Structure formats: structure tokens, C-alpha cells
Amino acid sequence: MNKGIYQHFSIEDRPFLDKGMEWIKKVEDSYAPFLTPFINPHQEKLLKILAKTYGLACSSSGEFVSSEYVRVLLYPDYFQPEFSDFEISLQEIVYSNKFEYLTHAKILGTVINQLGIERKLFGDILVDE
């Protein structure tokens, strides 16, 4: 990685910048798209800056489905991304709210703490209020 790029970002961003550069190198070497795990809005912004700097195109799953965490697809200019390229599955929970109301925090806590699913494996939880 061009270490000179660090000067434009905070020191806390360096580990993610290094990871982003690994992903960009994969696309450059293979000339094929690369799909990231779910990343937060700040990381998405950093990755889009890196992609532009290195002449790659990128799209976010947030362009198709509204969520806080998104997957970013890095790709060469010939590629035309579609929703299916983001490998996202939308799930719905239907329950009787007769006894309890499920909040975003309760669902997120259960998914992470009780089910042991890593946060980077899902984009967001939308609660219909």
C-alpha cells in the first residue's frame, strides 16, 4: 500500500485502510469483482475514497436496501452490478406482540449475544413500528 495515503486519514483508520487495499489489490489482480463483509458507514466512505483513488468502481448494497451496515462491491469498470451480486438475504420475523414488544436493541442483543452471530454478518434490523 502507498503509505502516503495515510496522511489523509486518522490513525484509527489505518487497519481498515490496509484491509481495503487488500480488497482493491484482489480486484486489480483478478480483474473480477470483490464483495466486502458488512461494514459501517464510516468504513463505506473510506472504501469509496480508496476505490476512486485507485480507479475502481464500487457500489453499496445501501443503494438497493436501506440499512446502516452495507456490503460494498468493488469492481472493474466493465462490470454492471445487480442486487443479487450483494448476496443479501432479507429475513422477516413475525410474532404476536400480545405479550411483549420487540425493539431493535432486543433483537440485536439476542442475535449477537445469545445466538452468537457476528455483527459483520448482517446489515441492519428494521423494526416496523
TrEMBL record:
<dbReference type="Pfam" id="PF17774">
    <property type="entry name" value="YlmH_RBD"/>
</dbReference>
<dbReference type="Pfam" id="PF21278">
    <property type="entry name" value="YlmH_1st"/>
</dbReference>
<feature type="domain" description="Ribosome-associated protein quality control protein P2 N-terminal">
    <location>
        <begin position="12"/>
        <end position="76"/>
    </location>
</feature>
<dbReference type="InterPro" id="IPR040591">
    <property type="entry name" value="RqcP2_RBD"/>
</dbReference>
<feature type="domain" description="Ribosome-associated protein quality control protein P2 RNA-binding">
    <location>
        <begin position="81"/>
        <end position="129"/>
    </location>
</feature>
<dbReference type="InterPro" id="IPR048443">
    <property type="entry name" value="RqcP2_N"/>
</dbReference>
<dbReference type="InterPro" id="IPR012677">
    <property type="entry name" value="Nucleotide-bd_a/b_plait_sf"/>
</dbReference>
<protein>
    <submittedName>
        <fullName>YlmH protein</fullName>
    </submittedName>
</protein>
